[in-house]
Batch of 4 targets.
Target 1
Amino acid sequence: MEHRHDEILKRVKDELPTDELICDLSDLFKIFGDTTRVKILFALFESEMCVCAIAELLGMTQPAISHQLRVLKDANLVGNRREGKTIFYFLADDHVRTIIAQGFEHLIEERNDSEKSF
């Protein structure tokens, strides 16, 4: 019996996002490839914070944190609000919270599974 996959290929091809959307998604995931940015997102997962608080929390300079916040803001992962002279940063929406939570949950589950196999 010959294996035929024409129908599967057509169905999957029809459901694939455009190359532009795939590229945008790839760029989004690249942003999560930097540990400083991930630490910032985790901090903002807990509370909105100003640059100086994030810098102190992570033991980094304010310019370094500002640079990473700019990358995160350009990717629409964080938002900000001004209160007097202070700018507070926060996660842009629940999608960002979900991405972080799901990624972390995946890692914890994976670690627990590997510990059970020993």
Note: The chain has a mean pLDDT of 92.
Target 2
Amino acid sequence: MRFVIVSGMSGAGKSTALNMLEDMGFFCVDNLPVALLPSFGQIAFDRKVDVNQVAVTVDIRNGDQLQGLTNQLEVLFELGMKYEILFLDADEKTLVKRYKETRRTHPLAREDRIETGIQRERKMVSFIREKADYIIDTTSLLTRELKQELEKIYINDEHYSNFIITILSFGFKYGIPPDTDLVFDVRFLPNPYYDPDLRPMTGNDSAIQQYVMASGDGQIFLDKLEDMLEFLIPHYIDEGKYHLVVGIGCTGGKHRSVTIANGIYKRLGNLPYSVRIEHRDIENDSTYKGK
């Protein structure tokens, strides 16, 4: 029996995650009252329902009763019921944006600002986050990427790290992405833009990759960047960080930055973390008339 307790911040994707788990074959219950957790667990573990995978959401909608979750988890433990906690999180700016887009009211901010409700909730669920087996930061995740992360855990049984690295290529002329933690400028590398035959291509094409890397500086840069990230990541984890966004920028975000982003993405693939890649501006220069 796999018994998953889904919790986290309102707006971080708990309902979406629960729907995905249901599609994966889990018997799912949304907003289970904390007091019923041991009873429901007993039913599940006694196989009184014909399932071997169960997921329930327990969150701030329980109100003050949520603080009793620790005691109920101890009951589950004493009864020999093994459980896992999946915690969905996102930064405050993203949560506010999602609430404003959906025009829903935060459960702790019915007569107050959304930001105030989010801050209150974060304090109230902090103890659950500390107990979590898996933490997924959905700040920069697309829906399909969240599904991929859940599949790693609950279908493929892969080793999963709560730390997610996003490699993000971009063009400086379109602005530095506001959520980047580290920004690297690769405009020192040879620019394929000035070759009319190469200009329409992108850093995903081998001809561009060969051109950018031909001088040898690109290879040296990748070596040094890989070494730096391998040094920094454990320190970020020690500081409680769960998501690192590494920005790789060139002028238009189409050639050099894409090439280097792809290169470092491949190199980090052997690390015990979840690594994803995004090319923000790769299509922009198809319509841009400037350099």
Note: The mean pLDDT is 89.
Target 3
Amino acid sequence: MRVKKIADLSQGWHSYGEGLYCRVQGDARAWILRFQQNKKRKVLTLGDARFLNLQGARDLVFQLKKDMASGGDPVLCLDRLLGREKHEEEVDQGPLFSEVWEEALADIAQVKAWRSTKAEQHWRATIVTHMLPKIGHIPVKELTRDHFINMLKPIWWTKNSTATKVIGRAVAIIDWCKSKGFYEGDNPALWRGNLSLSLPPPSRVHTITPHRTIHWRELPDFIADMWERNTVGSIAVVFGCLTASRCEEFVLARWEEFDKDANLWRMPSARRKDGKPFEHRVPMNKYTWACLERVKKIPRTPCQKPYVFPGRAGNKTIALGTPAITILRAAYDCTMHGLRSTFLDWVADTKGSNYIHAAEKALSHAVGDKVTQAYLRTDKLDERIALMEEFGAYCFSRIESRFL
């Protein structure tokens, strides 16, 4: 790379391999060597990039590393190579962001006590995709508000939902760094009174789009179509719709969770999105039992325990995205979560407001404020048994008896 191209570099640190960086601060451009000595990270300024070209900087790095391999002092060696008596002080820059984020994430995951690995996977994805390319090479103690502004600007208008998540996760990691002594001062990733002064509020940029759904009057035709497709995915869609449950709840269902005597699906508390420490009781009826009997008869499904909706291997479930893909391939413009909204609309339009509480319990939603939730323990099971029986009959109203 020629000096002319180096003059066009953006602000920050730019790696050229072997620990060689070009640091751009304002109009200044300097060659920097990062290295470790006695288990301490250090930096050494090699010279002004306006007067020392890339090849010259690489030659210096080669000579310095050769001298260090023989036990020499890199600072004295640089003085000798440049023919100068004074040199820049060695500086302990502390750890780079790329060196601490994984430990930070592990501690954050432990403190937050996530019930599944999905949350940690989402954090990891945003850090690797959006943070590391921009600030991974920068020492934590040198991070400033401008670093985060530059990191967010490319995605603020196009991926605002992701950008707001990046802010929250960056704040948590920098707070962790402060607790470890890697950073001092106010958190440069904070939104209020900081990033908010340079970026428009998310409400002005991002419009929340509700999950796509279908009108409840279309449900009988939809269910009939899914039923006749007769695949594990399509039957899973029918079962999820009939029980108004989430993909994470019904896709991972095990045979042992179904109580034939009590006519219940006892979904374990570990799969409850609301975090309640007790099982979620879901009423079963002839329509939901028919789904389970039908999935057993699908030829490609071994129906081995423990899963109700096994994948091709027989000992694992179908993917969580399979129901959505099944609906998409059938050319319906809706999602599984949208079908939960369809169920609630059906209750509101056909049963009235007296059944909304039971419907919310069927959806495993929290009802009322925190005080109400603390005192109201009933799950409205008796009302839900009748409600889900009627809903199942409506959903199957287009299907001939031979399908059941």
Note: The longest helix spans residues 160-179.
Target 4
Amino acid sequence: MSAKLRVLQANLARGFRGGERQTLLLAEALTDLGVDSRLLLARGSGIPRHLSKPLRHTATRRNLPLNAVRDCDLVHAQEAKAATWAWWNHLRTGTPYLITRHLPFAPGGGFVTRAAYQNAAAVICISESVRRAFAPGAPLSFSIIPNMTAPMHADPAAVAELRAQFRGCFVAGHIGALSNREKGQEFLIAAARMLRESCPRLKFLFIGGGPDEAELREMARGLSTVEFTGFRDNIADYLALLDVFVFPSRFEGLGSALLDAMAAGLPIVAGAVAGVRDVIRDGETGLLAADADAHALAAAIKRIYDDRKLAAALARNAKKESAAYAPAIIARRHLDLYRKVLADGQG
């Protein structure tokens, strides 16, 4: 092994969603800790255009790359396709690898998937909920390392413009892919419909795009209190605008958007699903509403709307809690695990 640890972060998903952002954040935070971080990416990945450091990265034109990588000490696979490739690369080169599991259900039971997990030096679960999704007694080496917050800096001029646009409004915002089957946005639209009379200043913003946008817009037809912004890069500006962050997901491994809302010092209302409960403590760092229950969601939002002292206390506690998810802290936990894996392999 070279004096400077060489770690290849592999993520073969296209686009730029939460998992890709976490891959990027980890690679850059590890660089700050002296690691030689490299990236193996899919063609069409959104990671390169978001790089803030000159990391070495390779984009493959194939669904699974055919080239083996020998000039690294460790591979960290960040999603399913990358896990398959990391196992294949291990067979070819002997390079040890780890897999991060983001989803709160067990991976597929096919031969390739089982082999990829069984031969991994460690499986990182981003929450206890993700860990519990694996079969009891699974012969795997598990570590729990959560996602990290994203360093964000709002543009004062952009924030002032947004606040002028929504002057006099109490803004409830949801940030994420518009994927109703996963994110449960229909319940937030239903809650908006329930609250339009009792909370006249309440405005709902759906910040993001996705496959169910047209369907959700149709659900919100006639609701003047609901607005869709489409995809936005300037998330920090919108977080600075919001009065409450709402997260009605049907399932989550952890919910990195929650971490960003916490770091922004926002009161949070979220669905009480596995993964979210690993981050939010009901009544302390946010309010949890019963899963798939629009009435419970509406009631929690109204509590924040009506009670400024409660909103301030939740926001203050959430911001304090978010410090545990800072990039430097989470990256150090990964680095400690990398070193342990390599030391155990040499022993």
Note: The mean pLDDT is 93.
